[in-house]
Amino acid sequence: MKTPSKSNPQGLWYQHAIFYEVNLRAFYDSNGDGHGDLPGLIQKLDYLRDLGVDCLWLMPIYPSPRHDDGYDISDYCGIDPVFGTLDDFKQLLDEAHQRGMRVITDLVLNHTSDQHPWFQAARADRNSPYRGYYVWSDTGQEYKDARIIFTDTETSNWTFDPVAGQYFWHRFYKTQPDLNFDSPAVQQAMLDVAKFWLDLGIDGFRVDAPPYLFEREGTSCENLPETHTYLKKFRTFVEFQNPEALLLSEANQWPEDVIEYFGNGDEMHMNFHFPLMPRIFQSLALADRAPIEEILARTPALPANCQWATFLRCHDELTLEMVTPEVRQFMWNFYAPEPRMRLNMGIRRRLAPLLENDPARIRLAHSILLTLIGSPTLYYGDEIGMGDNIWLEDRNGVRTPMQWNASPNAGFSASPTLYAPVIADDVYGYRRLNVEAQEKDPDSLLNWLRRVIATRRLYPAFGDGTLTLLPVQNPAILACMRQNGTQTLLAVNNLSAAPQTFSLDLPDGKLKPLLDDQPADFNLPGYGFQWYELLP
Ligand code: GLC
Predict the structure, then answer these.
(1) In terms of Cα–Cα distance, which of 276, 279, 226 is closest to 254?
(2) What are residue 418's DSSP bridge partners?
(3) Which of 307, 415, 450, 473 has the fewest CB atoms inside 10 Å of its own CB, making it the most exposed?
(4) Would you place residue 456 in the very low, low, confident or very high pLDDT band (cuts 50, 70, 90)?
(5) Rounded distance between C-alpha atoms, residue 414 and residue 104, angstroms
(6) CA-CA distance, 150 to 112, in Å (whole number)?
(7) HSE value, Cβ hemisphere, 13 Å, CA-based, for 139
(8) In angstroms, rounded to a whole number, what is the distance separating the alpha carbons of residues 178 and 157?
(9) How far is CA 397 from CA 317, 327, 366, 387, in A?
(10) Per-residue DSSP letters for 332-350?
(11) How far apart are CA 522 and CA 81, in angstroms?
């Protein structure tokens, strides 16, 4: 779809978009096999459009042995049969585009599955042309300065493969051998993959784990110059195929390293702001905006054609890699008191349970997400406040079936067995907590979110405006001013449980409340918030 959005005639659609992460397997099962699928998602597109979603991000849809929920790909140019066919995917693109929505999917550049034919050929024969697709060692002693990411399961980034007679390099699970980006054939193979999907009409990619493409002795093997050179080449290629295609990158790094992924506006269009995310939760826990303020002060300005992706939760653990050890411990104690709630360097819980299912705090978190900076990404199910199941291993506790209604299996599937159990407890269980019930209740989280997202769409400065945090004396107040050439917007958020009264030094003008008709006297209830337009 090439039409620029109405609010931004320049066509930088992603600067105003609401993203929604779809876990396809969890969303809607159309054929009763217990797994969500593409035809199922197509049936739910109206729901997503009505929520105000502009772009769907699909977790990996490719054939995979699923040792990492599809992030271990065994065929980059196919659809996992459990999800449907390539024709189903084309239909999804058509149907989404007809509704004014775009679709991007995860593209895993860094590694394949160990079941991928490239790896199978590589390990079987030292002389195979595919041997050079991976990173091998006789000793497994190289690159000692590279950290281990999946600290709970992996003890080394090298694993000995008896068939190959050598160690292979992997930054994630040992079932995910890293590709060797020093190989021109690998570099080209990934361009070919991108072309395959762009030719089908896809609107871009969420670029999985980009920091780790190259290895160099004596470095952390992250964010290397070679990686940026390749990503720029990838961008040029993608842009040539489709000038509107989006690269949304998952570099989980500090702001000063992340900024490199935007290049001069010639690398990734967007990157998730990983350091900001935990600080939103930290500020809520402390009733103090300082953590948010500090990280934003450390956040460099982006090239004009770029955008941050912001989020509260996603399919992974709430990662605490981008905080100090002291803050990490505080966050674990506060938000993950039980060991089962922790995973690697993070917290494997969903949004609503993290915020104790408190409607005021859940809405406040969304107010911050929708007004601070960047384009917000919602995680499926969080729009109805779904719960998690900490008894499921790994990150599966936040990947349970979508709760559509109160019928058996939450209306997700007609199958007697599901890929994962539905949540059925008294608080978060599907009998009480589901889309159908929330659609009928005007005060539900779902209907509230639909309204605030619709409001945000009317005010493009929430997407492309500059951000100024106002220096309010009261540390519990987070006051953000967003300005573009035509609009001045203000969002005030009370991070504390107690009501707060405060004053703001504002430019002359009249404040028009955007969310309801509250007077603009800056009296906020506990966890209250308000958005305004400042009229001249
Ligand atoms: C990304 C994904 C995560 C996956 C990892 C390895 O971080 O978000 O789910 O496990 O990459 O592919």
Answers:
(1) 276
(2) none
(3) 473
(4) very high
(5) 28
(6) 16
(7) 4
(8) 10
(9) 10, 24, 22, 9
(10) HHHH--SGGGEETTEE---
(11) 55
The catalytically annotated residue of 54, 106, 250, 267 is 250
Q: State the DSSP H helix or E strand holding residue 489, giving kind and residue range, or none if neither.
A: strand 488-494
Strands 477-483 and 488-494: antiparallel
Helices 359-371, 445-458: inter-axial angle, 10-degree rounding: 20
CA–CA gap between residue 320 and residue 317 (Å, rounded): 9
pTM of the full structure: 0.97
End-to-end CA distance of the chain: 36
Pocket test for ligand 1, best of 24, 107, 208 (most atoms within 8 A of CB): 208
Question: From edge to edge, which strands make up the β-sheet containing 510-513?
Answer: 466-469, 477-483, 488-494, 529-535, 510-513
Residue 220 predicted with pLDDT over 90: yes
Distance CA 130, CA 127 (A): 8
Q: CA 496, CA 109: separation in Å to the nearest integer?
A: 42
Q: Which of 360-392 are b and which e, b meaning 16 or more Cβ less than 10 Å from the residue's Cβ?
A: ebbbbbbbbbbbbbbbbbbbbbbbbbbbbbbee
The residue type at 146:
A
* Cα→Cα distances 445→46, 113, 350, 411, Å: 18, 39, 15, 19
In this model, does residue 518 exceed pLDDT 80? no
Q: Is the dihedral of CA 490, 495, 500, 504 positive or negative?
A: negative
Contact 162, 123 (CB under 8 A): no
Do residues 149 and 209 lie in contact, with contact meaning Cβ atoms separated by under 8 Å?
no
Expressed in angstroms and rounded, the spacing between residue 430 Cα and the centre of ligand 1 is 28
Dig out the tokens for 523 from the structure: 């009296």
Q: Catalogue the E-assigned strands of 197-311.
A: 204-208, 246-249, 270-272, 307-311
250 is catalytic: yes
- Ligand 1 pocket member 68 (CB < 6 A): yes
Residue with the two structure tokens 């506990």: 526
Strands 19-22 and 55-58, sheet pairing = parallel
| Span 276-298, average pLDDT | 98
Total length of the chain: 536
Distance CA 165, CA 163 (A): 6
Instruction: Read off the pLDDT of residues 319-334 as tens digits, 9 standing for 90 and up.
Output: 999 999 999 999 999 9
Is the pLDDT assigned to residue 2 strictly greater than 50?
no
- Ligand 1 pocket, 317 CB below 6 A? no
Residue at token pair 């980009």: 210
Atom of ligand 1 nearest to the CA of 150: 10
Structure tokens at 314: 């996603």
The answer to whether residue 9 scores a pLDDT higher than 90 is no
With 0-12 / 13-18 / 19 or more C-beta atoms within 10 angstroms meaning exposed / middle / buried, residue 498 is exposed
Closest CA to 70 of 186, 158, 176, 171: 176
